[in-house]
Amino acid sequence: WARNGGSWKYIRSYPILAASGHAGPKLRQGDQQVPEGVYRIEHLNPNSSYHLSMKVSYPNAFDRRMAARDGRTRLGGDIFIHGKNVSIGCVALGDPALEELFTLLAQTGHTKVKVILAPNDLRVAGPVFHDSPPRWIRELYATVSAALAEFPVWMESDKAIDVRGMSKMPKIAK
Questions:
Q1: Alpha-carbon distance 67 to 134, whole Å?
Q2: From residue 163, how far is each of 49, 118, 140, 147 by CA, in Å?
Q3: Does position 67 have pLDDT exceeding 80, yes or no?
Q4: Cβ-count burial of 124 within 10 angstroms (0-12 exposed, 13-18 middle, 19+ buried)?
Q5: Which run of H or E residues covers position 61?
Q6: DSSP string computed for 52-100
Q7: Confidence band (pLDDT; 50, 70, 90) for 155?
Q8: pLDDT tier for residue 10 given thresholds of 50, 70 and 90
Q9: Cα separations in angstroms, 96 against 14, 17, 134, 165
Q10: How far is CA 87 from CA 21, 38, 83, 111, in A?
């Protein structure tokens, strides 16, 4: 999705080749979870071990606030969207997709990018929950749903799909 001034325009989808964990947010360093929430790209890494990578702003203010509420420390970090097809807590899109996105972000400015990570497309179906989600999970998914609401499903050429019951990440990255 992109916009130049006014309304959003659907541009392209990329398949997620690898992501680890299960439905539910990242809670601590080493849990191998992909975070869930609304993030930014902090910087671009052209020297990544995974071809190219883009650092996600995890933990964000919401993550830190919920951790303080729960008494959790050591939230982890170093979450990237990267090339290749393997991942432990990151999102792997493969080398060709990362080359395209990396170049686009380098040209337009990575600070303008919003990254929405969710267990499924909340515009289409309710959230997918793991066995024991944190008490604040509904607050998280309300925030994610509000961020996704800007992007109409009907405009996407490949239509969003309900991935209820599937693994951690949706099959299509937006």
A1: 10
A2: 30, 11, 19, 19
A3: yes
A4: middle
A5: helix 61-70
A6: EEEEE--S-HHHHHHHHHHT--------EEESSS--SSSEE--HHHHHH
A7: low
A8: confident
A9: 10, 12, 36, 29
A10: 10, 20, 10, 24
Residues near 10 by beta carbon (within 8 Å), at least 6 away in sequence: 1, 151, 155, 156, 157
Asked whether the beta carbons of 122 and 146 are under 8 A apart, the reply is: no
Q: How far apart are the first and last CA of the chain?
A: 7
Query: What's the longest Cα–Cα distance across the chain?
Result: 44
Round to whole Å and give the CA distance between 74 and 91. Answer: 21
Q: Cα(39)–Cα(9) distance, rounded to whole angstroms?
A: 20
pTM of the model: 0.85
